[in-house]
Amino acid sequence: MHTITRLSADTFRDSVKGLADLLAGTVADGGSVGFLAPFDQGAAAAWWRGRQAAVDDGSLTMWAAHGPGGLTGTVGLARGAMPAGRRRAEIVKLMVHPDARGQGLGRALLATAEEAAVRAGLTLLHLDTEAGTPAERLYLTAGWTRYGIVPGYANNPAGVPKDCSFFFKRLG
Q: For residue range 3-40, what is the model confidence (pLDDT) as tens digits?
C-alpha cells in the first residue's frame, strides 16, 4: 500500500534524502530523466535542493508516494512563469522506484497531479518522455495525446541519444 501526499515547503526540504535516493536509483536503473551516469545520491540531493525555491514560491508542486520501505515515487507539476501561460503546467519527474513498479503507482501519481491541476483551474498539461518505454505506454493509456516524436532529443544515462515523445492533455 502506498500513500501519496503533497509536499509542503517544509516537507519537501525534509524529503530531499528520499527524493535523492529515488532519483539516483532511477538513473542507475537506466531511467531517462535528464541526468547522465554516474549520478550519485549527493548530486541528486543537490539537484533537489535546487528546486526548493520553486516549491517555496508555488511554481512547483511536488507529491511523494510512501510505502513500507520509504519514499517509492514522486511527481511534480511545474507552472509557467509568463502571465499568458498560467493556464498550463508541465508534468515533471514522474518516477517510481524499481521495486514498486507494475503496481499502478505511476498511474496514481499521474492522476494525483492531474486532479490538482483541475482544482487549480489549469486547462492544459504537457510533458515529454522517452519513446518506446513503459512511461510512454502509461501516458497513451491515461488519455494523453502524443503530438510528436523528436529523434535523439534526450540522452539516456549512458549518454546515448533517444527519441522522445511529447504529450498534452486538456483538462476540464
A: 999 999 999 999 999 999 999 999 999 998 999 999 99
Rounded to an integer, what distance in angstroms lies between the CA atom of residue 6 and that of residue 160? 34
157 touches 125 (CB < 8 A) = no
pLDDT digits (tens, 9 = 90+) for 60-113: 999 999 998 899 999 999 998 888 889 999 999 999 999 999 999 999 999 999
**Amino acid present at 117:** A
Output the domain CATH number for residue 112: 3.40.630.30
Q: In the numeric block, which cell numbers belong to residue 154? A: 534526450
What residues does 77 pair with on adjacent strands? 61, 91
Would you say residue 142 lies in a domain?
no
Give dist(CA 39, CA 42) in Å, integer: 8
Q: 119: burial class by Cβ within 10 Å (0-12, 13-18, 19+)? A: exposed
Whole-prediction pTM: 0.96
Q: Which of 141, 144, 89 is nearest to 116 (CA)?
A: 89
Per the structure block, which three cell numbers stand in for 79? 507552472
